[in-house]
Structure formats: structure tokens, C-alpha cells
Predict the 3D structure of the following.
Amino acid sequence: MARSRIDLHLISDATGETLNSLARACLSQFEGIAAVQHRWPLIRSRFQLDRVLAGIEHEPGPVLYTLTDRSLRTELESFCQRLGLPAVSVLDPTLDMLAAYVGAGIAGKPGRQYVLDADYFRRIDAMHYVLAHDDGQGEEGILEADVILVGVSRSSKTPTSFYLANRGIKAANVPLVPGVPPPAVLDRADRPIIGLTIAVDALIEIRRHRLKMIGAQAMQVEESAYVDPEAVRAELVAAKRLCAARGWPMIDVTRRSIEETATTVLQLMETWQQRRAEAARPTGPSP
């Protein structure tokens, strides 16, 4: 019998980001299913696990987990078996495959991917950079970016920049304002510049919500050029023409999640780097 609602328990001995992403990807494939996700991060002791088990018993449902401690895994699996609930260790198949291929044992240390290594500090540095160069701030520092995002107001430039920063990418973002030429510093930027665009109706809805959130009166919202359909349409057209004239690729974010937009940005960055490397190769005959 098909279910219309489930309780899904996500149990991790680290931050749980891996499980959250996996659950989101899998649940998106099921229409008409209401899934209540119960997140249990940083579970590393029997005391903490007991709290989780009580939560599962109170709101039973399937369990996805990433626990490296063997005793905690055994206790969780036995508990779920007694309740007749499915429990899956989502990393096991991948870890087993890699261990067999490289011929080495698994470290089995929780949260090992978050150790304070060079990548960690690179992500922190990128986060600080995004904070300092959000919405066109720190104009000269834009030349130090790994990528520059441009687009009209509320086209998801800032959340995409922060997502990229979590990947260690220094992303500056610059607003394209109607009637105002883009900063001259963009002409000197030896970095990939990528435009973000969005459908008119979707942008208007986002902007209306934004105005209401900051306390704008309903009448002001209705009369504002910021949400006027014709003005917004003209603004988007002008931004597209600018990007086309400058040779900047564009991404339509209307039906994309931030993760999907960021992935496309990374792909365009790779394409830009490949073209740059090809252009730098000598084309004359070999001596």
C-alpha cells in the first residue's frame, strides 16, 4: 500500500551534510510524498544514540545513517530490526568498493573529512572573500576572484557565491543596475564572468516577497518599478544583451536549485580555463 507521508531519520557522527544531500536527491524522485526529515548529527556516544532511538520509536520510519563506530552501528541496526524498520548505511557500498580497489583498510574515524587541512582553510578564506565582495563591494578586490557572477537584483548571485565559497571558490558578485554601466573593473578582470538570469514572473515574486520582508507598504510594492512587469522584463533584456555583447555566458536559474546553479558555474569555469590554456599553446610549426 502506497504511503503519502513518512518519517525519515538521518543519523550521522559528523555534520550530516552528506545524508541531507542524499535524502533531498532521493525524495525529489517521489511525487505526492510528504517526508518529515529528522536530522541527528554528531552522534558519537551511546548516550547520544539513546536519544536518537527514543526519537525513532516515537516517530518510526526508515533510517539512513553514517556511523563509523561499530558498537553504535550494531545497536542501531538491532533496534531498527526489532521495530521492523529499514536501516541503511549509505556509505558502506562506496567505502567497500574503494577499499577493495586500493587494497587498504578504512580509517573509521568520524568527521575525518572536516579536519583542519589546507582545503578547510581555503574554504574559510573563500567565505571571507565572498563576505567582503558581495553585491559589488570591494571593487578592486574583484580582480582576485576565481569567478565573477553578474545579474539583476535577486537573481540568486549571493547564495550561489556562498555555496561556491563552501567549495573553496572565491566568487565575487556584481549587480547589473538599470541605466548604470557595469563597473569598469570588469573590463580588466582576467577571470570567468558569468551572468545569472531568471524568468520575469519568478523574479517579480521573489522581489515582492523581499519588499514585504523589509516592511514596504503594499501600495508601494504594487507601484514600485522594482516589481513592475514591464520594467522587470526590460531590466532582464538589458542584462542579457550586456552579457551577450561581452561574451559572458549566462545561466537561467529559474528552475535550478542553488546546488545546480553552482555546479553549472563550475563547469563553465572549467571550460573557460580550457579555452585559456588552448589559446596559450603555440600554434606555429615546431623548431
